[in-house]
Amino acid sequence: MTRLRPLVFLPGSLSDGQVWGKQVAALHDVADIHVPHILGPDTLEAMAEAVIAHAPETFALAGFSMGGRVALEVYRRIPDRIDRLALISSSIHPVAQGEAEKRKPMLDLAVSQGMAALAEAWLPRIVHPSRLEDAAFMGLLRDMALRQSPGDYVREVQALLTRPPADDVARRIHCPTLVIAGDVDPLSTPQRNAEILNLIPQARGVTFKNCSHFPMLEYPERMNAELRDWLLAA
């Protein structure tokens, strides 16, 4: 009987375990999958500690978007327990000048009008235009956002605005690493993914064409195949 590899999936901002639902269903034959709850802390460091508290002894780690940054913080603390790493639609750039001001309108919207208003304003900006009329696709994203509270979102934004530098961690990564992003993702842009690949020379980069911020939902079959190869590679 094939031994299942422990695998931890980390969701991103405004998402939860459902963002990985198609991968959980497709990879259960090769992986013992855990999707920890990381809502609550207001720093990436505290999110990482929450993941570590319930993580297997050794495991593969895949982080989506903000979850990719959390994954790097987990790696910073326990590099010898992570046997492979995947960063999906993520980035490592430091807090930019004016970033807090750019985030403020969405933050104010969530606090003043609620998560439904935030979802309506924000989600269309980070999905491929071809998906905007896909009611099931947009509904899944909206439902994930609505399962969070304005307070949850405030803490997520606070965590991102106080994020520590990640380039030092990236340079030390020595396990098999997979970097996946969409070619028209406005958040995890091709330039930002090139930065990751420059810092992790042994990483394998994959770009999904005609894809925005949610490759695991936009092209689940391809994502499943890439992750399966990553998990099973020697």
Strand content: 5-15%
Strand order of the largest sheet: 2-1-3-4-5-6
- How many strand units? 6
Taking all residues together, what is the mean pLDDT? 96
| Percent of residues in helices | 40-55%
CATH architecture of the largest domain: 3-Layer(aba) Sandwich
The structural domain count equals 2
| Poorly predicted spans | none
The CATH superfamily of the largest domain is known as: Alpha/Beta hydrolase fold, catalytic domain
Would you tell me the structural class of the helices and strands? alpha/beta
Summarize the main sheet.
6 strands, parallel
Helical run tally: 11
Order of helices and strands: EHEHEHEHHHHHEHEHH
The CATH C-level class name of the largest domain: Alpha Beta
**Over all CA atoms, what is the radius of gyration?**
17 Å
CA(first)-CA(last) distance: 18 Å
CATH-assigned fold name of the largest domain: Rossmann fold
Shape field = globular
Description:
The structure is a single chain. By secondary structure, this protein is an alpha/beta fold. It has two domains: 161 residues, 3-Layer(aba) Sandwich (Rossmann fold); 57 residues, no CATH class. The chain has a six-stranded parallel β-sheet with strand order 2-1-3-4-5-6, sandwiched between helices. Helix 1 crosses helix 11 and helix 4 crosses helix 5. The chain is globular, with a radius of gyration of 17 Å. The model has no long low-confidence stretch (mean pLDDT 96).
Question: Can you give keywords for this protein?
Answer:
Rossmann fold; 6 strands; 234 residues; alpha/beta; 47% helix; 2 domains; 6-stranded parallel sheet; globular
